[in-house]
Amino acid sequence: MAGTARVVCIPTAAAGGWLEGRLQDPEKACTAWALVAPPHPQYGGTLSNPVVAAAAQALAAAGCRTLCFNWRGTGNSQGTTSGRLEDAAADCETALDALLDLCRSDAAAGATPRPRIVAAGYSFGALAAARIARHRREVGALLLLAPPIGIAGAKEFAQLDIPAAVVAGDADAFAPLGELQRAFAGRPAFHLRVVHRADHFFSGISVGQLSGEIGAAIAGAHLAGTGPRWGAARIAPRPRPADTPGGNSAPRPHVPSERSACSAARR
């Protein structure tokens, strides 16, 4: 049974308004929080993508509270669509900040105070997730789905010393298995899950079947479990701007009362 999902509007200065998100509760006790970045925004990449849906389903089954989001200018997100990785990484980081705010709210309410944070992404989204993981210490693990190493090269996956699970098809021309194995060789915790007869889009693979494959990768790399590899996220209190009267913090993620465009939350 899938956990409860609800719309979340994520404030962003870069897009001049809000990014649309969907927060899904875990199916069992929450042991981690996860962020899922969709594929390329100029090729139909949204949070409704079947691979993104399969990832959210697998993460929820593993005990992760999961935030999927739409890039600026896609779905109900505001702003102008961009195909630049720099903009995608900025959107991904904005969504990560929103996730951390939600974590702090849970901690204040007495929930798990130091959850593990997993950054996940499919295709282009995997590049954005890997990029923010290199400099955001809160990210404790990566879940990369069909990372296009054949196009982007191995540099986007360099200097990553956190556990990583990778799911790729053996017929994926954009994510050759040999290149993935070389790029992640020698990492402290790396698990590669190969989906047989699957291309870059996992064509012909049902959401349920793909969710099972992703779940096996999550278990194989202990992404949502306990173990000596894991450190909990260091989530400091949100800083208060020094020049803001009363020390009010920046806008927090907003949960609309009904499913609608996030722009409605501004009115």
Poorly predicted sequence stretches spanning 5 or more consecutive residues: 226-250
Mean pLDDT: 84
N-end to C-end Cα span:
35 Å
Envelope shape: globular
Strand order of the largest sheet: 1-2-4-3-5-6-7-8
Series of secondary-structure elements, N-terminal to C-terminal? EEEHEHEHEHEHEH
Radius of gyration: 17 Å
Question: In words, what does this structure look like?
Answer:
The protein has helices at 50-61, 85-108, 124-133, 149-152, 177-184, 207-220; strands spanning 5-12, 17-24, 32-37, 64-69, 116-122, 141-145, 164-169, 190-195. It is an alpha/beta fold and 267 residues long. Strands 1-2-4-3-5-6-7-8 form an 8-stranded mixed beta sheet, with helices on both faces. Helix 5 links the parallel strand 7 and strand 8 (190-195). Helix 1 packs across helix 6 (207-220). It is globular and about 40 Å long. 48% of the residues are buried.
